[in-house]
Design a protein that fits this description.
A two-stranded antiparallel ribbon has the order 1-2. It has 13 helices and four strands. It is mainly alpha-helical. It folds into three domains: 169 residues, no CATH class; 95 residues, no CATH class; 78 residues, no CATH class.
């Protein structure tokens, strides 16, 4: 997938971390002005921390943003234009962090323009002599879906934390170059929804949980060897959704009787498979927007109007009479009424994964 251009790409030789924060802010101006304003304040704070570090102006602990501005101003490093831009971003950022009022796109755009003034000063004074700052451009609304607000804030927090950690290292003299390698770009550059939100561990191994699965329902039928284990955990409110799982699965079996360490291990292995299957499904859906699907593990069927209208009767589907009877009892009479996740059907009495697979195979034959 071709990486989308963004205005502050020119900032990458100075600090790739700052450039990535700027990219996330640019992508969010027309979706979340509050996030843009709040994190713009943090963005300029990192810039000022770099300047203070380079100029060796302060050996004391971390200063507040207004203290940083005053320190640089008192020592003659700021022009009136830069000082005004800094205070404008600071004041709007403070409002966005504390005031519940609705913030306008126009405020985010004015803040964005002030950031350009600050970045231009920073690059021209402290960047490479060979680096040219392009003329200011207003951002454009993005055509495609971008990050959910909670995921966006998480990504920004990760970047900002890395910048803060880097700036607290006294030995880091080459501040403008070294920070560029401080972030795990596989996590930061992930597509919307793919950002690692947490990790789940078990005996020295770990699984990264992407944002789009943060509260995913752990359907027991998706875990062939751990189905009963998950059902029992669910009854104790311990394993119904991903966010209920602890960061370390060791000892999870203590919540239910007659389940042991071996069941934890099997569940951990099947959890890896579940996450991989969900990533595959997500890619399929994103590549074919507007389509309806039936999924069986990593396989799928596109649900056409013709297929949707097929009646769920024994003359259309063979060898699954028990399932068809129970579907009829629940007034599920046509293919189009089936759930997208076909393994849900394994909840019915004396209906196992093999029966659901027979249904899926017959649906595939009809589709062909």
């Amino acid at each position: 997938m071709q990486e989308e251009a963004y205005f502050y790409r020119f900032l990458e030789p100075v600090s790739r971390d700052l450039a990535n924060i700027a990219r996330q802010l640019e992508n969010s101006i027309f979706t979340s002005p509050r996030v843009v304003l709040t994190h713009s304040r943090i963005f300029i704070e990192h810039i000022l921390q770099k300047v203070i570090h380079i100029e060796e102006l302060s050996k004391i602990g971390k200063l507040t943003l207004i203290d940083q501005i005053n320190l640089l101003d008192e020592n003659g490093y700021l022009t009136q234009e830069i000082r005004d831009a800094l205070h404008y971003v600071r004041k709007l950022g403070n409002q966005a962090a504390h005031n519940p009022r609705k913030f306008r796109y126009s405020e985010a755009l004015l803040c964005w323009e002030s950031i350009y003034t600050i970045v231009k000063w920073y690059v021209e004074v402290y960047g490479s002599l060979h680096l040219e700052v392009p003329e200011y451009q207003d951002p454009s609304p993005r055509k495609q879906q971008i990050y959910d607000i909670q995921e966006l804030v998480f990504k920004l927090d990760v970047l900002e934390k890395k910048l803060s950690e880097a700036m607290t290292t006294p030995e880091q003299e080459e501040a403008l170059e070294e920070i560029a390698s401080s972030v795990d770009m596989d996590k930061v550059e992930a597509l919307p929804g793919d950002t690692t939100i947490r990790s789940i561990r078990y005996k020295g191994e770990s699984i990264d949980i992407p944002y789009f699965l943060r509260d995913a329902f752990l359907l027991p039928q998706r875990f062939e060897k751990s189905e009963t284990f998950l059902i029992r955990l669910g009854a104790e409110q311990q394993g119904r959704i991903m966010s209920e799982l602890p960061n370390n699965l060791e000892g999870l079996s203590n919540h239910v009787k007659r389940f042991y360490e071996k069941h934890e291990e099997m569940f951990f292995e099947e959890l890896k498979i579940f996450i991989q299957e969900e990533k595959i499904r997500r890619r399929i859906v994103s590549e074919r927007p507007g389509e309806l699907f039936f999924f069986f593990k990593t396989d799928y069927i596109v649900v056409t109007e013709e297929l949707s209208a097929v009646p769920l009767t024994e003359d259309k589907f063979s060898s699954i009479p028990n399932l068809l009877r129970q579907l009829q009892e629940d007034q599920i009479e046509k293919v189009g009424q089936l759930p997208m996740e076909l393994l849900i059907l394994a909840k019915y009495d004396r209906v196992g994964i093999g029966t659901v697979e027979k249904l899926f195979d017959q649906l595939k034959d009809m589709q062909r």
